[in-house]
Amino acid sequence: MHKKNQTLGEFIIGNQTSFKYSSGELSSLFNSIRLAAKVVNHEVNKAGLVDIIGSAGEVNIQGESQQKLDVYANEKFIQTLINRNIVCGIASEEEDDFISINSIDENHQNKYVVLIDPLDGSSNIDVNVSVGTIFSIYRRVTPVGTPVTLEDFLQKGNQQVAAGYVVYGTSTMLVYTTGDGVNGFTLNPAIGSFYLSHPNMEFPENGTIYSVNEGNYIHFPQGIKNYIKYCQREEEDRPYTSRYIGSLVSDFHRNMIKGGIYLYPKSSLNSNGKLRLLYECNPMAFIAEQANGKASDGFIRILDIQPTELHQRVPFICGSKNMVAKVEEFMKEAQ
Ligand code: P6P
């Protein structure tokens, strides 16, 4: 049930019954994410004014230099999640290992693990291009009352209880699912509230936008090369358009609204692609499927992949279901 101009808080309360776990816990989880999103949004929007642009001088486990806003966003999301006392563990792109969080009663009673990419697309920060936060939420699988373990984080994407992203673009939006469709909320910065602006978001089954870094073309598998040429074939009057922002959340968001496909395939440069399974591909795949879209590694469903490492990478093809199916056809033919 979606009422016009509903706030995010009202929406969460109004839809708690559709969340199969304790309603209060979901509200608390999303309240912490909502708060962190507002705080990070404030910093992102003034990045050009304050000396927080540029590397924090450190390098994260991915070997990428950490922009100060990366570090800031990471700290803000972790702190707000800890303060709500329902999370027993957090994994982040910016943290080498997962963080174990004890409950206030010190008896490890918290039930949820959260995995985040606190600021995806951060190389765009200092050129004023939109960036995003991605989050993925699971129930722990090890016994409550014991410290969280790596097993709690290495769950298949089809076990997620919620996932979402914040896109810091021309407006700031929070888009999420708890397994009952996808809804988008736009921040009114004047009063600091998110309002339901995009109820029941869905990928059109077909689209004409493809998003891929064609600079890597010669390194792609033959099936991907064949698909890109298929998109460009003029004799069949292909109305395709190439749009690649270099920020997954922004490309995904545009493709979900207009119809399109995002591809980050494996290549001779990256044997498993670049994107991380746990806190980029799985949450975006959950959202895609809940929005009538599709997400695969070119052969199998992203959400069925059994993770083996916290920061593992997978090839990622995601968007309008018929476009993803077409890529899988080309990959199969080229095998
Ligand atoms: P490339 C950003 O670093 C990111 O993880 C995604 O947001 C983005 O789509 C991709 O990498 C860009 O990578 O190699 O094309 O610059």
Care to describe what's here?
The protein has 335 residues and is of the alpha+beta class. The chain folds into two domains: 8-198, Fructose-1,6-Bisphosphatase, subunit A, domain 1 (Fructose-1,6-Bisphosphatase, Chain A, domain 1, 2-Layer Sandwich), CATH 3.30.540.10; 209-334, D-Maltodextrin-Binding Protein, domain 2 (3-Layer(aba) Sandwich), CATH 3.40.190. It has helices spanning 8-14, 23-45, 68-83, 222-232, 248-258, 277-290, 321-334, and strands spanning 55-59, 65-67, 87-92, 99-100, 112-120, 131-139, 162-168, 172-177, 182-188, 193-198, 209-211, 241-242, 261-264, 293-296, 316-320. The strands form three sheets. The chain has an eight-stranded mixed sheet with strand order 4-3-5-6-7-8-9-10, sandwiched between helices. A five-stranded mixed sheet has the order 12-11-13-15-14, sandwiched between helices. Helix 2 (23-45) packs antiparallel against helix 3 (68-83). It is globular. The N and C termini lie far apart (46 Å). The model has no long low-confidence stretch (mean pLDDT 91). The structure holds 6-O-phosphono-alpha-D-fructofuranose. 6-O-phosphono-alpha-D-fructofuranose binds at residues 120-121, 123, 213, 246-248, 274-275. Residues 120-121, 123, 213, 246-248, 274-275 line the site of 6-O-phosphono-alpha-D-fructofuranose.
- Say how many strands there are: 15
First-to-last CA distance: 46 Å
The share of residues in extended strands comes to 15-25%
Bound molecules: 6-O-phosphono-alpha-D-fructofuranose
The shape is: globular
Major pleated sheet? 8 strands, mixed
